[in-house]
Amino acid sequence: xxxxxxxxxxxxxxxxxxxxxxxxxxxxxxxxxxxxxxxxxxxxxxxxxxxxxxxxxxxxxxxxxxxxxxxxxxxxxxxxxxxxxxxxxxxxxxxxxxxxxxxxxxxxxxxxxxxxxxxxxxxxxxxxxxxxxxxxxxxxxxxxxxxxxxxxxxxxxxxxxxxxxxxxxxxxxxxxxxxxxxxxxxxxxxxxxxxxxxx
Length: 199
Hints:
The chain is mostly helical. The chain is built from nine helices and no strands.
């Protein structure tokens, strides 16, 4: 469960985030990630979409950081942002599209451009995160996210059910995000989230 930030501390933390404090930004992410993910999952019943809602919500928070000091009720604000992100994604889905396709849409502006050194760090951590997956999760992720195959196509290739493909993909996405945020504590969290949004 999230360890929610005490109300008497949130104003100071938001002020720090508005000034670009990475530690404060990470503390908010850690405090709200589970509840935002769970809220999105309860609405969508789709773990992959829920992960995308979580990432996009915190990218938007970073983009809006200079205005955070004007937010009176942060709990209400962050959940409203998450809801708007979710609704944007839902509107992008047509009957012929799976929620998985939503990762291809650029919803928010680039938070900032990473330099060559940061990009190499992200790429190296991403490759290590991929290698840390179980064999089934790794091949599923590569076929869906890198090769661009549908879940049904992957299920046929691997001779498993579509639900198994969905579970392995969902787990791989969460593990990659968790591994990279743990490995790259020297980089701004928003860069990691933005990098993963483009994968």
